[in-house]
Specification:
CATH class of the largest domain in chain A: Alpha Beta
Number of domains of chain A: 2
InterPro entries (chains A, B, C): Cholesterol_7-desaturase (IPR050584), Rieske_2Fe-2S (IPR017941), Rieske_2Fe-2S_sf (IPR036922), VanA_C_cat (IPR044043)
Largest interface: A-B, 29 and 25 residues
CATH topology of the largest domain in chain A: Naphthalene 1,2-dioxygenase Alpha Subunit, Chain A, domain 1
Strand order of the largest sheet of chain A: 11-17-16-15-14-13-12
GO molecular function (chains A, B, C): 2 iron, 2 sulfur cluster binding; dioxygenase activity; metal ion binding
Number of helices of chain A: 5
CATH architecture of the largest domain in chain A: Alpha-Beta Complex
Strand content of chain A: 25-35%
Distance between the termini of chain A: 23 Å
Largest sheet of chain A: 7 strands, antiparallel
Structural class of chain A: alpha+beta
Keywords (chains A, B, C): 2Fe-2S, Dioxygenase, Iron, Iron-sulfur, Metal-binding, Oxidoreductase
Oligomer: homotrimer
Protein name (chains A, B, C): Aromatic ring-hydroxylating dioxygenase subunit alpha
Organism (chains A, B, C): Sphingobium limneticum
């Protein structure tokens, strides 16, 4: 399992984190307690310094967190401020804490060197605070390593097969290749599917050009815009953004985040919904119903793929033309992870 | 786990394999997809060449099988015939396929060298296509290695204890020893229990001689015929087959097959029923009810035995006189497995 | 996992062992069958000499135990006395048996050198046969190693936090330190909590002094007496036993036993109830309801602690002043275990 540590990982939907209620999460196999109190957001290693009881079973006391095994009290910087029955507090006793940010309705945790935790590296997702979009949200837990989910999102040709019944993309979708552009921290995919009647379940009478563009960014964040336009739009626009006012039906945005929780487990967060000027709540609800169905299809396939890989002595793959995005992204991850390992060794 | 690879393993009841519906099975810890289409029966390794997704989640298209992750299409010989979006197909790309035969209502898969896959080595079981017998069938999944189930079937003295309540064999059954004859690929067991009132739950008023003969054949196939006859028959016939016309009650046949699926898992297939001239559907149903009960008794004992073995640092056994069949068969397996390993090394 | 072998471990509540019904238990990861017949109590390794089937699936026949796989019969000393179908019985064939004693309503098994199994080393618990106490009982299975439960019982400061809602001890309980006295095979804890209104859920109007004394003894046995008295009693008595006649409310006794069953599993046995002169059945029932709630709180915390420890590469603890009892007891265990290992090596 190779992952970049110097990156912001999605830890939770902001809406799922209640004030004064510690929340247990896991990123890169490290147990973390996430809590917010008195407008401060904190992420600690989820183990008390005393006897390693999980602090996620603890109690918020103002801006402090108490371990509910033997009562040690920690301030929001991780320092021990009280040990019941004991006057002397070891001054160097301190919990490891992680840089944490709330942005675009996601709680982001930096898993690498805290000195490099630059919030400017948080991908520009669209959150529920953005008035332009009407979004729904959810998450799914996978019994598979995050990389396999990344690979899935880096090759949309699977839409024609895994989602033949749900998204109804049709085999012609997998026959076309998107334009790929390497980015500093990811890959951009741009695609027009030209002159079809649209995906199977939402066919239009007129011929349409379907537009879709997404960035897939470190550590595993997908940000995608898409819409359908009258035939000829693709030829006219090229890969410039089409004029939403000319859209047939909704223009939608989806953000998806893949967080490795353990060696063979991951949490997959997602939102989806229309632009407010080109869709409404009913369309959002329809999209979320569709997402629940389609993302369950991915989960069945990817977890089964993981089980096959685990039973294969020396697993080898045979890349196809559609793996270019997968390869670009995974090489980026390996290059950065190698650089991190080198720095760690030099230090 | 020592097993012979050059043997036909039972993969499924033919009735459980639907046309155009790929079926996931596992033999010797290898994931296999079994499918039939256009009157052809095929067994492939259950992993796509591309990214190791299981083909058992795939779709039959005529006599071809499509991976439903990214759409690679395979012909019935395992060759890739289509890669969506890609013109060039690597000519050497080919799935491993296994020799497979449908016979006696069982699907048999050859796990060894394909060049040696001789259908004449398929044990002469009685299938549902045999008009002489009225059979029922089933299978059970074990959390135990196949060898322990073989051992069970190679020593019927357990009938007096494991099945004291179901088959009701009585302690006298375990006091007698069957005649054993080594076969080229197994062991023959022949037995008369003389002058009893029959097993506990099906007692007769008159004294009877109970006859039972079975072959236990590689890789783990039991074929057994049995019946009850008037006292004196044993003395008159010796080990020649008695005249079924003189049977008291039913003359029955059962075939049982033990397939190692993983290191600590096995699937146990079975059929049972009377000869059509010496029994009827009601007797078959009674026998199947009895089999469900008795085979569950074996499963409880053998899975518990497996758990004890797994917790024993250096497990040792103390053979008894009844282990002669177990020993004969397991030595045969070891001898053949050693020969296979030697050939593999020489090659 | 370091445990002392030369000690009596609690195997079961006597009431849970039915005559002629073999019972499967596990101590220090060794499978053991416990059975009583014809007034004899026996503990064997739970694996038949023949093929390692568990004898706990066996059948008592008078003072003998029969393996119900192939019928081997063992006498109460573990000798084979019958092998079906076989005349010769290997004279040296014998099951390992464990010294076993029934005392204070518990079945105790000695896991060490049988020659040292001195019943005088059985801790002086109070059983249901003691007319002075009205007791209830139970047990809980833990997915955690026994040592973590011992540690919990060796530091009652957790009452203020883990049991804040159930026992309602209040933070002042954890602020006080008990008097500790090292014993030859354990540690004594004595404590007065002076001048409070008692624990939260059972507050009294008058000020009271709460008295509590317990011994924690090898291998993991807690024996505790406690009661509440008028304020001033503590000062008058010191650590001498107060006069029960002056108790406010019940004087109670509890015995608790922690038995390591596997590497990460344990069984926790407990009784609790009032002295007959200072309480009744209603109080016992109230205490058992409270115990069920409070011991479930411990289980949640300790199993979570175990999971954190298992995910921590090099787990380190930071002892506090309350860990003195934990440290004393664990050092005693380590010293004795080391001595046992040394003797084993010398032998």
């Amino acid at each position: 399992m190779t992952y970049v540590r110097n990156a912001w990982y999605v830890a939770a939907w902001a809406q799922d984190l209640e004030p004064d209620r510690p929340m247990a999460i896991s990123i890169l196999n490290e147990p973390i307690v996430l809590w917010s109190a008195e407008d401060r957001l904190v992420a600690f290693e989820d183990r008390c310094l005393h006897r390693l009881a999980p602090l996620s079973l603890g109690r918020c006391e103002g801006a402090r967190l108490r371990c509910m095994y033997h009562g040690l009290l920690f301030d929001a910087d991780g320092a021990v401020v009280q040990i019941p029955g004991q006057d002397m507090i070891p001054p160097q006793a301190r919990l490891r804490s992680y840089p944490v940010e709330l942005r675009h309705s996601w709680v982001w945790i930096w898993m690498g060197d805290p000195a490099r935790a630059d919030p400017a590296l948080i991908p520009p997702a669209v959150g529920f605070d953005n008035p332009d979009y009407i979004l729904g949200r959810g998450f799914l837990d996978y019994a598979a390593e995050a990389r396999l989910i990344n690979d899935n999102l880096l090759d949309f040709s699977h839409l024609s097969y895994v989602h033949a019944e749900s998204f109804g993309a049709g085999p012609e979708f997998a026959d076309e290749r998107p334009r790929l552009t390497p980015l500093e921290r990811g890959v951009r995919f741009e695609r027009w599917v030209v002159g079809t009647h649209g995906p199977g379940r939402r066919k239009s009478d007129a011929l349409i050009d379907s537009w879709q563009t997404y960035d897939f960014l470190l550590p595993g964040i997908l940000l995608m815009w898409s819409g359908s336009f009258v035939a000829g739009t693709a030829e006219r626009c090229g890969f410039a953004q089409p004029d939403y006012a000319e859209a047939i039906g909704a223009v939608t945005f989806t953000s998806q985040a893949v967080t490795p929780t353990g060696d063979r487990t991951a949490r997959y967060f997602f939102s989806w919904g229309p632009h407010r000027d080109h869709g409404d709540e009913a369309i959002r609800d329809m999209l979320m119903t569709l997402a629940d169905r389609a993302f369950a299809e991915d989960k069945v396939m990817i977890e089964a793929q993981q089980r096959v890989i685990d039973r294969t002595p020396s697993p080898r793959i045979m890349p196809t033309v559609h793996d270019r995005g997968v390869t670009l992204f995974n090489r980026l991850v390996e290059r950065l992870a190698r650089a991190e390992a080198g720095e760690a060794e030099a230090a």
